Hints:
Blueprint: E1 7-9, E2 15-17, E3 21-22, H1 29-41, E4 47-48, H2 56-70
Parallel strand pairs: 3-4
Antiparallel strand pairs: 1-2
Helix pairs in contact: 1-2
Amino acid sequence: MTPSIPSVALNTGARLPLFGLGTWTAMNADELKIALRVALDEGYRLIDTAAIYQNEHVIGEVRQFFFLVSFV
């Protein structure tokens, strides 16, 4: 069972998580993969990323795997 992450309601009706995983300090792809897997397993759905971090490929890889496995 995934724990519930607190969130706030937006005026669109969508919910925005109050907690997220920051990835800007991640310098090692393997460590980032582990951190992302743990965060997603614990219910995090807000992952901070930007092109300047140069780690989007790692985040995309873990995200794709996580959501493929989650929906099977």
